[in-house]
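thought: fold this chain, then report.
action: predict
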Amino acid sequence: MLPTKILKLRLARIAKGKAHLSTQDKLMLVTMESPDLSAHFILRLFKMSLPKQWKFKHETAEDIFYSTQLIELIETELIAAYEMHARKYAWYEQCLMYLLNFVVLHPTQQQINAYLRQLDQCLDQAPKIDLLKYFQQHYPSTQHAIALAKSYAGAEQYNQAIEQYEWAMQHATQPNEVAFFAYVNCLIQRQQQYRADVSDVAYAIDLLCRYKKPIDQKAYRKTIQNAVTAFLPPATLQSRAVETHVLADVGRSLNAIGKSMGGIFGSKNVDIPYSQQVIESAPQLLMDSHIVESLNQSDLMQAAMQRLCGSSSIEQTVSTHLLGNLWLLLSQNNRALSLVTQSLQSNQLHELLNDHQLKTTSSLELGDIQTILDQGLVAYLGDARLDKHHPERSILYAQRDALVAEMIGLAIWFQQTILYPFADQQARQVQEMQKHLGEQLNNMTLSSGLFAYQYEKQQRAQDLCVWLQRKLDKGTEFEKIQAAWVSLRELKHFHLDEGEEKIAQLQRSLEHYRQIRLKQIVMVQPTVAISPVQQHDDQ
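observation:
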């Protein structure tokens, strides 16, 4: 730091030469003992370095006066000019700490509010946190606690952030939704035990279920999604939809448009569109069979189930199937919650779960369609080249078009007849669980876990509805057929007579198409290698 007498002269020079001095010139004047303002750009690079630590003098009143003027220059001009460096090395925080120690000893609330607005733009690191701690310790308020908690969270110090958010909620005169969601997200990120028998994530889900009438619905849904993601095991999460690469999507779209244009100009397509990547990236339904298996393998949920049974005077050596039965009862019986409550009150939960004949729905057999879904269309049709000039080529075109129309029709039928009612049912089930499950089970881990699975089940159904609608309503023929393959993949989960009939009919149409193709394969004669000796002999 320059001596105060020199700093005084330099600041006076800056004040007089504002019109022609650059920001870099001003920085050189207040940081360098012998600044050469006439130096060219390259020379300045070697001579000048940006300060990391400002050392403001404070021994005398004159020191404080000119240090304050320097701080004004830093705050009004230098920070904006060297923003990344200034943020990294906490220039504003250094200035504010000096002001609070030597200039503004008793700031008003209006001044503090201005400081908080500036600090909000700073990086969440020690200097900023120290200042916010100073405000909260000397001028405690919910506003200061929330600002400090937010900074702790940004620095991934979740224990301290949670402590400050809880202090703010206890002392708040009115609810703060933004702070509530931030608090819940800290619980989700920390992922420790909130209490001995309740994890942070289970507590977060319970808080969200009990939160009534959120104003910011988007933030609420995002927070629930984060909590559910943190709760569910990887085996369940890995079957979620995956976003495809943008360039790959563009390429497929251009290819589909090219084939459509070819059809307009007389060139017909003989192939059935199939993209393994698109099919695998589509949302997959989460069905009871997977949920029951996942619950049976979850030590956390099994322990919670044992505590529930223990609370109703039932022997704690509970077999693992009881938790799966509880899930099936809740998902298949509209009166399940009241039945569970009554059985807990009368110590008959064990009997209730054993007496009900509960089982998951068996899957439909897809036959060759399953082979296509697993291995691709080539595994079923083969990879042979077709004769473009075959006399029965028109028959193949006709069968191909009929098969495409049948598949698109099946996708629309699945969407409207099966998927929409299924998605509506899951949405109602989520609402029912959200309203009553926590209160009636009186076991936070169990109720939060069951809600997490139901929310994921509902969200998958909703996502598939949106995905299919987008493909079927506005998509190309290629996209509509991918929607059909995805519909077939999900149709197997619904054991319906009409579904079996449609699958059988489609199998026959596919086989008919395959047989016509087989008759039009180009038979390539094997080539025989001729040695140079044979060529010479022939000559």
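thought: worth noting. The chain has 28 helices and two strands.
final: tokens above.
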